[in-house]
Every structure is written in structure tokens, then in C-alpha cells.
Amino acid sequence: MIHDSLTRQLAEDNLALCAIPSETGDEAALCDWLEARLAVMPHLRVRRHGEAIVACTAHDPLCPTIGLFGHTDTVKAAGDQPLEIRDNRVYGCGASDMKGGLAVMLALLAAHDPQQHPNLVAVFYDREEGPVIDNGLEPLLAGGHIPKLDFAVCLEPTDNQIQMGCVGGLHAVLRFEGQRAHSARPWQGASAISRALPFLQRLANQERVPVQYGDLTFYEVMTATTAHTHNSRNVVPDSFEVNVNYRFAPHRTLASAKDALLAMVGDEAVVTIVDEAPAGQVCLDDPTLTRWVARTGLRIEPKQAWTDVARLSARGIPAVNFGPGETAQAHQARESVPIAALRRSYDDLLGLLVRHGD
Known about the structure:
The protein is α+β, with helices and mostly antiparallel strands. The protein has 2 domains: about 5-165 and about 280-350, Aminopeptidase; about 170-275, 2-Layer Sandwich (Alpha-Beta Plaits), CATH 3.30.70. It contains 9 helices and 18 strands. The strands form 4 sheets. An 8-stranded mixed sheet has the order 1-2-6-3-7-17-8-16. A 5-stranded antiparallel sheet has the order 11-12-14-9-15. A hairpin with a 2-residue loop joins β4 and β5. α1 crosses α9. It is elongated, with a radius of gyration of 23 Å.
């Protein structure tokens, strides 16, 4: 049962957002809805850029500026995905990842008080769930459409815990070469699959590598995620391609991550990097963060995944992940989020939105 109007509004907004399909690349309808919703908040300056929106409160030069970031897209909805409020949860595709976060952003914008809160910038952007290179936040940052920020929060699903930084990622295609032959006479050729086995065995035997930042532990891992040949079933393959995904800790640059991957492969395969994303930096000593944690008692964990914190920290913006969504619910077939988590996220983020010295 929902006992107060704010909690009810959070739940209803989350459901309304989930009711508008917004699979990656098809966010226009949801962007229209958000634009209309923000337009009735007279204290905001709202600018649309393609299928993204930047909403800003009035700027007080004596106050810090906090940025809230939320992506509007989801993965493809499951065929049996419910859309309803039931048992104190909101059900819908994206309820946790991350339309619950968008609902919280809307509520914080509506409640902004320039006498009590710092400057607030909310960024609703598209194409986060797709390839990193197509991400809709990058054009906003590169085009100067986002004001200077002192601190930022990506409202990714984190179970209402602060998740610090993020691991970087490389996707590389490794091509192992052999000699083509008829599969009935394999001795006349050399299977490219067999030539890949020593590397794949090393990969299978490699343990995760812990990297420590204070009390936080990130893990570096390399994983083979796809593999295929291009020949017929009755041909000994002369080429075998494996996609390797390397997740690396924030201490590495993209260049050092590539070097580590190449060292692992050696001269056994031809390596082509097909997608890359830097790690998000750790900002444990940032004063805005430390004040927020002191006010709320929130726990800090490492982010063992990639998020747009990396894009923000690459531009010198201290940033963390924090949102109401349940990490275990992200991309699930019957995705949902607890209504109580929406309200808790709102309350904890109010603890961030306090003027310095208050």
C-alpha cells in the first residue's frame, strides 16, 4: 500500500515511463513524454538535442552544480514482461534499469528549491544500452550542451548503494589462422580451431585479478564471448574468430589495457580492437561525496561493470553510480523495482542536494 502522495507519484511515473517502449534506437516517444513533463516545471530551462534532453535550474554562481544522468533506452522487452503496480513493486521493462532512476530525477527536479539546494542539471539521454561508440551522452558532452558540473550521479541500478568508478572494457576479435581442407581428410589441412585451443585454455585457467582502491576491490577479467568460422560444415576451417571482452580496473589507461591484451595473445592470432571504453575514475576523497556519505550513511562499493561515469570522469567531473534499481533485476524477463526503493533513492539524493555549509 502506498501511503503518501510523493511515493505514489514516483511509482506512477515509473509505470508511465515503462509503458512507453524505448528499446535502444527507438527513444523518440519517451523523449517526447519527458519533454512535455518537464515543460510544465516553470523553474527549469529545458533544451532538447535529438532524442536527449538537458534540464537546468536557475544558475547561482555562488553554489555548486550537481548533475543527474539517466539513460532513456532499455533492452528488448521479454514477451512475458508484466506492466503493473503489484505487491509494492513496479513491473515493466526498464523498471530497474533505469526508468526508476528517471522517475526519481523528475521528482527531484520538481522539488528543487533554490534557497536550499545547489544548482541542478538533469540529463536524459539515449542509446546507452547499445554499442559504446553510439552512446547518446557523448554528443552532449562534446557539443558543450551540459554546463560545468562540480559532481555527478548516474542513476544506474545500484540497490541504493553508491557504486564508485567503473571498470573499462575492450572488445577484440582474435583471428586464428589454419589451412583449409575437406573434413573427410583433415590431415591435408590444419584446423584454425585447434590452433586456438592453447590460448583458450590459458584464458580458461586465468583467475580474476584483484585491484585495490582503499577498501574497494575491482576485478580484471578476460572472457571469450563469441566464436565462429565462415566455412561450410564439411570444411576444415582456415580461419577461426573469437571475441574477447577484457574488463580492466581504473588504474589502467586504454593504451595499457590494449598492451595487456596483446601480451596475453602473443603472436598466436591477429588482434583487431572493435570497441573500447575507458574505466571510470575513483573519487573517494571528493568533498561533495564525503559530505553526502556523512549525511546519509550510504555504503560505497566498486562498480564491476561499465557505465557513463567513465565519460564524466574523463572530463574531470567527479562522478558515481547511485540509483533505486535492483542490479539483479536489470534485463530480467519480468523486471521490477520495489516502490520503497524509489522513495529511499529520492530521500538519499536530497541528502546530496544541500548547499555547502548547510
